[in-house]
Design brief:
The complex is a heterodimer.
Chain A lengths: L1 H12 L1 H37 L3 E5 L3 H10 L8 E2 H9 L3 E12 L2 E6 L1 H6 L4 E4 L7 E4 L1 H7 L6 E3 L15 E8 L10 E4 H7 L3 E2 L39 E2 L7 E2 L1 E6 L2 H11 L6 E4 L1 H44 L1 H9 L4 H32 L1 H10 L1
Parallel strand pairs in A: 4-9, 6-8
Antiparallel strand pairs in A: 1-13, 1-14, 2-12, 3-4, 3-13, 5-8, 6-9, 7-8, 10-11
Helix pairs in contact in A: 1-11, 2-9, 2-11, 2-12, 3-9
Chain B lengths: L1 E10 L3 E10 L4 E5 L6 H9 L6 E6 L2 E2 L5 H11 E4 L11 H11 L6 H13 L15 H13 L5 E5 L7 H18 L2 E5 L11 E4 H5 L5
Parallel strand pairs in B: 3-8, 3-9, 6-7, 7-8
Antiparallel strand pairs in B: 1-2, 1-4, 4-5
Classes of the chains: A alpha+beta, B alpha/beta.
Chain lengths: 389, 220
């Protein structure tokens, strides 16, 4: 115990040196473990979400981008589909087609336009308010509510696509209908609205004051449908103006980013995949589990290389630590000589030096364990961060 | 108590020392003076068993120091020798109290509450008790020397070796330290062997030895 006490005194006195030693050692310990933890947990989380999403249909392009867009609401997706595709898929009678329109965000959180069927698919329930996707309303994920301090009845304004786009998308003030229970998935960080609400944000749906009662100055050329600048467009859906919202043009041509397909059976799934896998077909159909599996295989192939690099770095760092300890012993020759002169036994010297190494190792292990616990608790956030990158 | 007989010691080819006969009785207080580099420190190191003579015999009490194994000599030093070094030799990362107790922590001596109480008492006597929690870096030369003396005297050694303990000290500190060493030697019945260049201190000792006469062939 005396040797450990002296070792502790030494480490405490040379704080800066000790901190560097602790950090270096804990990095050596945590790096391979953390890398493995992040990869295996990421795989589990990615696969978990993929497994609850049987099929996804989108425009032809990158299957990975489509999967990430539909599963994690990233903005990297190919061109939009027309709503017609949803009708066509539904009309096959083989699956339930759930449209997703992910284009906008509010205060950094993605706005997901969809239908009630999506809430059922993800088994969403609300912890406050109502599970309602009425026009102009939104359901916010647990993390969104926590971050923005939202509660039912509050308002949330969608962010304009770009500040100077005065002819583009106008912000929509949405009413928070409910707060979703945490699901520890990407939905916790999403704002879910009806498809029509997302189209209002896109400027494809709009509401304005009744032309019949409006001031004459707004009716520049009523016969041709042209309107003056004084016409008031609604930036919020209220009970009073809800009925005025409408779209000009064909509803079937409205955009959706992707369609989640929930087949009735494995056979239906196989038929749908066969039908939409043909070259001539304008759609891309993917099984998210296969995409995630391919992604993880690529990552794990890369991980072998990464492991080699990490192990080489760790070996170099261990050698550097041995060098530090060796140099430290050389620098402490006078102290060791003093100990010898006053009767220190050889074993006590060995115990003292070993005690220092032991304490550094214990400290570094504790730090590594703490970092490991933090990483473990935040793998989902880390994954979300990397996906957004 | 301390007896040198036909002791020959050399460092490579550059230094040689011969002591045919030299002895100090138990409780004896001996001051050794002589020119720098003549081997006074070497003599103390031979008594402590830090160095081993090439030939001859160094006997301290019942211990034939020059014949002991390395491990036994270490044990002998911790148990029987209180060594005050010229450059204090304190451990910079240990507090004053821990420095005083250091010998107990690194040897086979057992650190008990009585030992701690004696350490505090010695510190009190040497007027360093208010510095017990400080590190050596925060102390003056005189205070450092007093800490080194406390460490040397803690185990109630039968031999006190002091290598110029009053060098670089002011008159007040010189007197304080010398008084303590002489008193402690008297109280414990320990042999005191002190190397000094300061001739004004010699009359405080019952025996003084001119080192160049003692060694004869010392070539410094």
């Amino acid at each position: 115990m005396d040797s450990l006490y002296i070792a502790l005194c030494y480490l405490r006195f040379y704080k800066f040196r000790t901190i560097i030693l602790l950090v270096c050692t804990s990095v050596i310990l945590i790096l391979p473990v953390a890398l493995n933890l992040i990869l295996t947990d990421s795989q589990r989380i990615l696969m978990q979400r993929a497994e609850t999403t049987p099929l996804i249909v989108g425009s032809k392009g990158s299957s990975l981008d489509l999967a990430m867009s539909a599963l994690y609401f990233t903005e990297k997706s190919a061109s939009d589909l027309e709503y017609l595709a949803v009708d066509e898929l539904q009309a096959t009678g083989l699956a339930n087609a759930i449209p997703l329109y992910v284009k906008f965000n509010a205060r950094g959180f993605p706005i997901v336009g969809t239908t009630e069927a999506y809430l059922d698919l993800r088994d969403h329930r609300v912890v406050a308010g109502e599970r309602s996707l009425d026009l102009g309303q939104c359901l916010v994920g647990a993390e969104v509510a926590k971050s923005l301090g939202l509660k039912p009845g509050d308002s949330l304004v969608s962010s304009p696509e770009q500040i100077f786009d005065i002819a583009g998308v106008y912000p929509l003030k949405m009413e928070v209908a409910g707060i979703l229970a945490p699901t520890f998935s990407a939905d916790d960080e999403a704002i879910i609205v009806s498809l029509e609400t997302s189209w209002i944000i896109a400027g494809l749906f709009h509401g304005h004051e009744d032309l019949e009662v409006a001031d004459a100055s707004v009716k520049v050329n009523h016969d041709k449908g042209a309107l003056g600048s004084k016409l008031v467009l609604y930036s919020q859906v209220t009970g009073a103006n809800r009925d005025s919202f409408h779209a000009h043009g064909d509803a079937a041509a409205m955009p959706v980013s992707a369609v989640v397909l929930v087949p009735d059976s494995d056979k239906s799934s196989a038929i749908l995949q066969g039908r939409y896998l043909t070259q001539e077909n304008p759609y891309l159909i993917i099984r998210p589990t296969e995409v995630v599996d391919r992604l993880m295989n690529s990552i794990f192939r890369f991980k072998v290389l990464l492991d080699t690099v990490v192990l080489s770095s760790a070996l170099a760092a261990v050698l550097a630590l041995i060098l530090v300890f060796t140099l430290s012993i050389r620098l402490r020759q006078r102290e060791l000589a003093t100990n010898f002169k006053i009767g220190c036994s050889r074993m006590a010297t060995v115990r003292m030096l070993a005690g220092e190494i032991l304490l550094v190792l214990i400290g570094a292990t504790l730090i590594a364990a703490l970092v490991w616990a933090v990483i473990r608790a935040n793998v989902g956030n880390l994954l979300g961060f990397f996906i957004q990158l | 108590m301390i007896r040198f007989r036909d002791v020959r010691f050399s460092y490579d080819d550059s230094f040689a020392m011969c002591v045919d006969e030299f002895s100090v009785e138990a409780g004896g207080q001996v001051a050794i003076y002589g020119p720098s580099g003549s081997g006074k420190t070497t003599l103390l190191n031979l008594v402590a068993g830090i160095l081993v003579p090439d030939s001859g015999n160094v006997q301290v009490g019942p211990h034939a120091v020059s014949s002991l194994s390395d491990a036994r000599r270490r044990y002998f030093r911790a148990n029987h020798v209180g060594h005050v070094f010229q450059r204090f030799e304190l451990i910079e990362y240990l507090s004053v109290l821990d420095n005083i107790l250091h010998t107990y922590r690194i040897s086979e001596l057992v650190l008990t509450d009585d030992v701690r109480a004696r350490a505090e008492s010695l510190a009190e006597r040497l007027d360093i008790s208010k510095h017990l929690k400080k590190y050596p870096g925060a102390l003056s030369q005189g205070e450092l020397q007093r800490v080194a003396i406390c460490r040397a005297l803690l185990a109630k050694p039968s031999v006190i070796l002091a290598d110029e303990p009053t060098a670089n000290l002011d008159a007040k500190n010189k007197t304080l330290i010398l008084d303590l060493l002489l008193d402690e030697s008297r109280e414990q019945g320990a042999a005191l062997l002190m190397v000094t260049h300061d001739h004004s201190l010699l009359d405080r000792f019952e025996t003084t030895v001119d080192f160049s006469l003692l060694t004869g062939a010392g070539n410094g």
